[in-house]
Amino acid sequence: MEGTAYTYMVECKDGSLYTGWTKSLEERMECHNSGKGAKYTRSRLPVRLVYYEVFVTKREAMQREYIIKQMTRADKLLLIAGRSEAVRLNCERITGKAQ
């Protein structure tokens, strides 16, 4: 077993959404907000974690990332709106740490 992998979405300062995958949400948010994350987010700081899903393998997380990236913005917003309370609270906790 590989461990834990996450597919996540962040909301950028300009309101756009970025989707990625990682092995550590906390480290990835710190990376994004320090300007060392994805090229897309570097000019749109700060970012705020708004959604994530947990997977057993990197492959599963990457497959889900691809699926989410194919979604329309409206569908992504519905996905975010339908997240559980636990995910919402954890997003807020992680984002608070990153800033």
Please give a structural write-up.
By secondary structure, this protein is of the alpha+beta class. 49% of the residues lie in helices and 21% in strands. It is built from five helices and three strands, in the order E-E-H-H-E-H-H-H. A three-stranded antiparallel sheet has the order 2-1-3, sandwiched between helices. A hairpin with a 5-residue loop joins strand 1 and strand 2. Helix 1 packs across helix 5 (85-98). It is globular, with a radius of gyration of 13 Å.
Give the strand content. Answer: 15-25%
How do the SSEs run, as a string of H and E? Answer: EEHHEHHH
Determine the fraction of residues in helical runs and give it as a percent range.
Answer: 40-55%
Number of strands: 3
Count of DSSP H/I helices: 5
Can you tell me the residue ranges where pLDDT is under 50 for at least 5 consecutive residues? Answer: none
Trace the largest sheet across and list its strands: 2-1-3
Sketch the major β-sheet. Answer: 3 strands, antiparallel
Mean pLDDT over the full residue set: 93
Q: Strand pairing plus helix content: what structural class?
A: alpha+beta
> What's the alpha carbon Rg, rounded to whole Å?
13 Å
Dominant shape = globular
Rounded to the nearest angstrom, the distance between the terminal CA atoms is: 32 Å
